[in-house]
Amino acid sequence: MSGFAQLDPLLHSQLRLAVMSLLIGVDSAEFVFIKEKTGATAGNLSVQLDKLSNAGYISVTKSFKGKKPLTTCSITKVGIKAFEDYVNNLKQYIE
Length: 95
What we know:
Layout: H1 14-24, E1 29-30, H2 31-38, H3 42-54, E2 58-65, E3 68-75, H4 77-94
Antiparallel strand pairs: 1-3, 2-3
């Protein structure tokens, strides 16, 4: 496998990759929107968002909309670079 760049294991997960793909195109997205678009369960999505947040790839903001809790996610500069690197490295495998 020499010659192939290492794929970021954090992004090499279908759900985390889907989250990053959604966030790369928007300023921010609400938890419910991400959940609907990915088809993930709330519990699984929460775990994956924590992993992306701990890696510094996304920022997670918790607030309230009226009396309901609101979780909003946005991609960070570190996350954008990681995503772009992942896509470029993946291209090596398919070209």
